[in-house]
Each structure stands twice: as structure tokens, then as C-alpha cells.
């Protein structure tokens, strides 16, 4: 995404909500903020997790209608560190973590720790906007999205042994190719099992599936 550079936060009081964007790459910050502002959101640009934490302790300490988009791997505090610190301070804002291909296992840990969702690079504009819109829906915090243990156990009982095995591998951060290679299956077969798992578990997203696994200690 190539957009003109933005050098200041763009408050839009009448918009649907405020998005705190955290990334150490200025070009990514500019691009994401431009995209979100064009869709009516107010944004804040933060070059580090520390900058956002300072902001939330200052002028925006009382703000409630907000969410966070953060890169996972950054100098200093990582996106996972930021998530932990927000929870420690009692500011469990809905959080979208952006991750590179090799960071999927860490992203899984982030979801189990309370992240609302994650996007894997490269991602499209529509995926970002859809994820942010979901975070502003009522009850979108990770704590409220966490399913009950009994409900998850009932859904797990509908899985075949192979589907359960694939689910364990998926929520463990393995790719379809890795799962296939370890079990002497084709990637297409693994994808078919994975699709059935999503349907039977009634998981609308990968993040939702990880939260279900976390609810039963998987």
C-alpha cells in the first residue's frame, strides 16, 4: 500500500472509534493510518509499544472506545509484551496482532494470552478493515469472546480422532504442509480435515479456534 506520509495523529471525533496503531516501520504506520482514516476511524501513530503505553497513561487515559493494531516483532517491547502490559494495567483493549509467516506459533500464544485476532503478512486492506470493525462490535474483548469449557468439550466430542489430531497441530502453530509431512498426508487432505474442524467447532476464525483450545487446556 503506497499512501502519502502522515506525521500526526488524525482525530475524528464523529468516527466509529479510535485505533492505536503500533509499528516501528514508519511506512507501515502511514499506510495503516491512511487506510483507517479513509474508513472513518480516528488513529494514533505509535512507533513502539512504549509510546502507546505512555499515551494511554496520559491524554488518552480515560478513552474507552478504542482498539489496538500492533506488529508482533519490534525492537524493545514486542506486541506480545504490549498485550501483557495492557492486561496488567487493566486496559484490555481489543487487540489485532500483525505477524510475519514465521511468527505464527508466537501469534498462537498471543491469542491464548488475550489477543482478539491476528493477521499474517502480507495482508489486504479489506482484511484489516474487517478485523477492526469486528473489534468495535459489542463484546469484542478477548475475555468476553472466550468460550465456556463445557461448550468446547461438547464440540470436541464431535471430532474424529484424525480431526482432533489436526486441530491440536493447527492450534500449536503448525502449517498444513508441516502437519501433512509429519503424518504422511497430502496438504489437501489436511486442509479438508482443517475445514471440517472449523465447521464442527463452529469457529468463525483461526483466533476463535485457538481460544476454544485454550479454554480446555489444549
TrEMBL record:
Keywords of this entry: DNA-binding, Phosphoprotein, Transcription, Transcription regulation
Keyword Transcription: yes
GO BP: phosphorelay signal transduction system; regulation of DNA-templated transcription
PROSITE patterns reported in the protein's UniProt record: HTH_LUXR_2 (PS50043), RESPONSE_REGULATORY (PS50110)
Record Pfam families: GerE, Response_reg
Record bears the keyword Phosphoprotein: yes
MF term (GO), any: DNA binding
Domain Response regulatory span(s) in chain numbering: 18-136
Sequence positions bearing 4-aspartylphosphate: 71
HTH luxR-type domain sequence ranges: 152-217
Xref: CDD domains: LuxR_C_like
InterPro entries attached to this UniProt entry: CheY-like_superfamily, Sig_transdc_resp-reg_C-effctor, Sig_transdc_resp-reg_receiver, Tscrpt_reg_LuxR_C, WH-like_DNA-bd_sf
Matches recorded under PANTHER family: DNA-BINDING TRANSCRIPTIONAL ACTIVATOR DEVR_DOSR
Name of the protein described by the UniProt record: LuxR family two-component system response regulator
Amino acid at each position: 500500500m503506497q499512501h502519502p506520509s502522515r506525521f500526526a495523529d488524525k482525530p475524528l471525533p464523529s468516527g466509529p472509534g479510535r485505533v492505536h496503531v503500533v509499528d516501528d516501520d514508519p511506512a507501515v504506520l502511514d499506510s495503516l493510518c491512511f487506510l483507517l482514516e479513509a474508513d472513518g476511524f480516528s488513529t494514533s501513530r505509535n512507533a513502539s509499544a512504549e509510546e502507546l503505553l505512555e499515551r494511554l497513561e496520559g491524554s488518552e487515559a480515560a478513552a474507552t472506545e478504542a482498539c489496538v493494531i500492533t506488529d508482533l516483532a519490534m525492537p524493545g517491547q514486542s506486541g506480545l509484551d504490549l498485550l501483557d502490559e495492557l492486561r496488567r494495567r487493566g486496559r484490555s483493549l481489543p487487540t489485532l496482532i500483525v505477524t510475519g509467516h514465521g511468527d505464527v506459533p508466537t501469534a498462537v500464544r498471543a491469542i491464548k494470552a488475550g489477543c482478539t485476532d491476528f493477521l499474517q503478512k502480507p495482508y489486504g486492506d479489506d482484511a484489516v478493515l474487517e478485523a477492526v470493525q469486528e473489534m468495535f462490535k459489542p463484546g469484542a474483548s478477548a475475555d468476553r469472546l472466550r468460550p465456556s469449557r463445557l461448550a468446547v468439550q461438547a464440540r470436541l466430542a464431535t471430532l474424529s480422532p484424525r480431526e482432533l489430531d489436526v486441530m491440536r497441530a493447527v492450534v500449536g502453530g503448525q502449517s498444513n504442509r508441516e502437519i501433512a509431512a509429519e503424518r504422511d498426508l497430502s496438504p489437501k487432505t489436511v486442509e479438508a480435515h482443517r475445514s471440517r474442524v472449523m465447521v464442527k467447532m463452529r469457529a468463525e476464525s483461526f483466533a476463535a479456534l485457538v481460544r476454544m483450545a485454550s479454554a480446555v487446556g489444549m
